[in-house]
């Protein structure tokens, strides 16, 4: 993949910062999301909560359904392919998707290898639980990272854990001596050059969003205060009582994430939040998929 | 001199980095109370114009900022920021509508069609230009003047205190467009 193309893809993620990317399953939902202030939508047949409920193998969405959503909105449209399923990624690239999410929400197609994302023109976002995973995905060509969290649960605990883990490791790396960097790269199983970038800049070389279990404006602001540069909201919106209102409230909470008075006002009368499942109650930990 | 950067969504931090490199103070604008702070110029960053337009309205920033722009506050809009300034928007709704330009949103297509190039910018010279799902200027009217074209499309224009670029000078590391804008701010200060 040309360096320039990778740069442009990294830069598209920069334009999404401070924004909310929402899961949508129909053109109508996509329009609600856009009107509520989503900076991009993730087109998928079933939101994670329903994937979880349905069980079985979950795959890339029908390209026709994705195209319907591309036609419905003017903001960037993302779609998911299975971990390691490079042909699903080729298909998504063929329909000019703006971002491909190589996602643990779908059933993995390869239990060893992730997609060589450098072979694509289309940008990729990947989930990560810690610095090692994030840098491995970036080495493979991801131009945006998100926490894995635990999708479809409405429980923010894992997104918090992943964001804290990543940031704690970044702080640790910043304090390493030059000669200690190589050993750290070996431990984390990542290229030393990427780790050096982290050491020098105190952040990932690409934009880092929070995802997985975010259900309320306060959840979104929590992730922003913990250092996320934006949030993905999946099941949290369209599994709630008043999707349009909740979506708009989450968008505003992400912009003004340190303004507690505003978040208080935004949190009023949002109707029923998604029911949610606790981590201990889940049979399937999607975050365990892909390393 | 202090520059206000609209920080509702998008690549506002990148503009702050450019201003840091030019030793220029800046403040972020996210809500109405932020307008009480003093600033001499305003930057509207790249991002999603639909998001920024909605938040400008919902957070009641639209009218006060529009009044200041009409009152001569120097403003630079990049990509989505240009769309916010444009009087006419193909594929979207006008927001500030203070500049006599007609723009087309996502004019080049989807992300696959994003590109970078180099071309002349009047008064600056040849500069790198990065276009991310960018608009271009379909037509310039009234007091607006074309400052840059590439591939036969107008990609930068100025109308008095307003500067609009379809590309992202904040992403290339080249400080000259920001310097050009700071000169506009200085000129406005001297004028007053």
What topology does this entry show?
The complex is a heterodimer of chains A (291) and B (192).
Chain A: H1 3-16, E1 20-24, H2 27-36, E2 40-43, H3 48-54, H4 63-72, E3 77-82, H5 86-94, E4 99-103, E5 124-128, H6 131-139, E6 144-147, H7 157-174, H8 181-188, H9 192-201, E7 207-209, H10 217-225, E8 231-233, H11 235-238, H12 243-255, H13 260-266
Parallel strand pairs in A: 1-2, 1-8, 2-3, 3-4, 4-5, 5-6, 6-7
Helix pairs in contact in A: 2-4, 2-12, 7-9, 10-12
Chain B: E1 2-6, H1 12-21, E2 25-29, E3 41-44, H2 49-58, H3 62-70, E4 75-78, H4 80-85, E5 86-90, E6 99-104, E7 115-121, E8 125-131, E9 136-140, E10 145-150, E11 153-159, E12 162-165, H5 176-191
Parallel strand pairs in B: 1-2, 1-3, 3-4, 4-12, 5-6
Antiparallel strand pairs in B: 6-9, 7-8, 10-11, 11-12
Annotated CATH architecture of chain B: 3-Layer(aba) Sandwich
Q: Uncertain spans of chain B, ≥5 residues at pLDDT below 50?
A: none
Query: Uncertain spans of chain A, ≥5 residues at pLDDT below 50?
Result: none
Q: Largest sheet of chain B, order of strands side by side?
A: 2-1-3-4-12-11-10
What integer value in Å does the Rg of chain A equal?
Answer: 18 Å
List the helices and strands of chain A in order.
HEHEHHEHEEHEHHHEHEHHH
Mean pLDDT of chain B: 96
Pair with the biggest interface: A-B, 39 and 37 residues
What characteristics describe this protein?
heterodimer; A: 291 residues; alpha/beta; eight-stranded parallel sheet; 8 strands; 12% strand; B: 192 residues; Rossmann fold; seven-stranded mixed sheet; three-stranded mixed sheet; 12 strands; 27% helix; globular
What can you tell me about this protein's structure?
- The complex is a heterodimer of chains A (291) and B (192).
- Chain A is an alpha/beta fold.
- Helices cover 44% and strands 12% of the residues of chain A.
- In chain A, β3 (77-82), α5 (86-94) and β4 (99-103) form a beta-alpha-beta unit.
- Chain A is globular.
- Chain A starts with a helix and ends in a 25-residue tail after the last helix.
- Chain B is globular.
- Chain B has a single domain (2-190), classed as Rossmann fold (3-Layer(aba) Sandwich).
- Chain B has helices at residues 12-21, 49-58, 62-70, 80-85, 176-191; strands at residues 2-6, 25-29, 41-44, 75-78, 86-90, 99-104, 115-121, 125-131, 136-140, 145-150, 153-159, 162-165.
- The longest helix of chain B has 16 residues, at 176-191.
- In chain B, the strands form three sheets. In chain B, strands 2-1-3-4-12-11-10 form a seven-stranded mixed β-sheet.
- Chain B contains five helices and twelve strands.
- In chain B, 27% of the residues lie in helices and 34% in strands.
- By secondary structure, chain B is α/β, with parallel strands linked by helices.
- Chains A and B meet through α1, α2 and α12 of A and α1 and α2 of B.
């Amino acid at each position: 993949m040309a360096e320039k193309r990778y740069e442009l893809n990294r830069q598209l993620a920069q334009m999404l910062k401070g924004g909310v990317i929402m899961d949508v399953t129909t053109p109508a939902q996509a329009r609600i999301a856009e009107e509520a202030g989503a900076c991009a939508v993730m087109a998928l047949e079933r939101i994670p909560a329903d994937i979880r409920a349905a069980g079985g193998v979950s795959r890339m969405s029908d390209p026709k359904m994705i195209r319907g959503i591309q036609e419905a909105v003017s903001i960037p449209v993302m779609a998911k392919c299975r971990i390691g399923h490079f042909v699903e990624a080729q298909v998504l690239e063929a329909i000019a998707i703006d971002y491909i999410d190589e996602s643990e929400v779908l059933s993995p197609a390869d239990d060893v290898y992730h997609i060589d994302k450098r072979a694509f023109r289309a940008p990729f976002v990947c989930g990560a639980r810690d610095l090692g995973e994030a840098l491995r995905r970036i080495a493979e060509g991801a131009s945006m990272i998100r926490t894995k969290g635990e999708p479809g649960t409405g429980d923010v605990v894992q997104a918090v854990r992943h964001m804290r883990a990543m940031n704690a490791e970044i702080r640790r790396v910043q304090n390493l001596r030059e000669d200690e960097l190589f050993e750290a790269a070996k431990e984390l199983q990542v290229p030393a050059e990427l780790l050096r970038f982290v050491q020098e800049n105190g952040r990932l070389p690409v934009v880092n969003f929070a995802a997985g279990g975010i259900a309320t404006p306060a959840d979104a602001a929590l992730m922003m205060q913990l250092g996320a540069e934006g949030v993905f909201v999946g099941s949290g919106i369209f599994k709630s009582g008043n999707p349009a209102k909740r979506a708009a409230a989450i968008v505003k909470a992400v912009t003004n994430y340190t303004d507690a008075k505003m978040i208080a006002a935004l949190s009023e009368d949002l109707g029923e939040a998604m029911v949610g499942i606790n981590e201990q109650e889940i049979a399937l930990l999607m975050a365990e998929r892909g390393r | 001199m202090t520059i206000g950067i609209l920080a509702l969504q998008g690549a506002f931090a990148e503009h702050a980095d450019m201003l840091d490199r030019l030793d220029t103070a800046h403040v972020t604008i996210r809500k109405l109370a932020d307008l009480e702070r003093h600033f001499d110029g305003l930057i509207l960053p790249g991002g999603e114009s639909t998001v920024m337009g909605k938040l400008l309205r919902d957070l009641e920033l639209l009218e006060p900022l529009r009044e200041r722009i009409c009152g001569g506050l120097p403003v630079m809009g990049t990509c989505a920021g240009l769309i916010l300034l444009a009087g006419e928007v193909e594929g979207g709704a006008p927001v500030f509508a203070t500049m006599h330009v007609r723009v087309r949103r996502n004019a080049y297509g989807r992300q696959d069609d994003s590109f970078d190039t180099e071309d002349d910018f009047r008064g600056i010279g040849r500069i790198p230009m990065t276009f991310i799902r960018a608009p271009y200027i379909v037509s310039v009217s009234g007091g607006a003047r074309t400052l840059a074209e590439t591939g036969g499309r107008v990609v930068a224009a100025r109308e008095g205190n307003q500067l609009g670029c379809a590309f992202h000078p904040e992403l290339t590391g080249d400080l000259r467009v920001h310097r050009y804008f700071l000169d506009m701010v200085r000129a406005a200060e001297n004028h007053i």
